[in-house]
Design a protein that fits this description.
The protein is an alpha+beta fold. The chain has one helix at 4-19; strands spanning 25-30, 38-43, 46-52, 59-64, 74-80, 84-91. The chain is elongated and about 40 Å long.
């Protein structure tokens, strides 16, 4: 019989090891889109990811936030054209109080 706690610890350790190199990578999931249509992810003014919707109407598009960024607060918009779905992200202005 295996020890469930040992298995849980092994999975947690593996997740931590594999997740170290991919912490800055993100993924957008698009659902219920026409099969074969294009999907693009735009961060700021740059297209950072592209993909195609599968026969099931779903797409997963990996993208990056930009050099040196691991996370950001953003406003997200979706633009739907005839054959392209664009997911557009704009950095949200910081709401932290300014000092000085």
């Amino acid at each position: 019989m295996t020890n469930p706690l040992r298995l849980l610890l092994m999975v947690a350790a593996l997740t931590g090891i594999l997740g170290v190199g991919t912490a800055a990578a993100q993924t957008v999931f698009v659902r219920n889109a026409p099969a074969g249509s294009a999907v693009e992810v735009v961060v700021g003014a740059a297209t950072t990811g592209t993909g195609t919707v599968g026969d099931d109407g779903n797409a997963s598009v990996p993208f990056t936030l930009g050099e040196g960024k691991a996370e950001m607060d953003a406003n997200v918009f979706v633009d739907i054209c005839d054959k392209t779905r664009s997911v557009i992200m704009h950095a949200q202005a910081s709401s932290a109080p300014r000092s000085g």
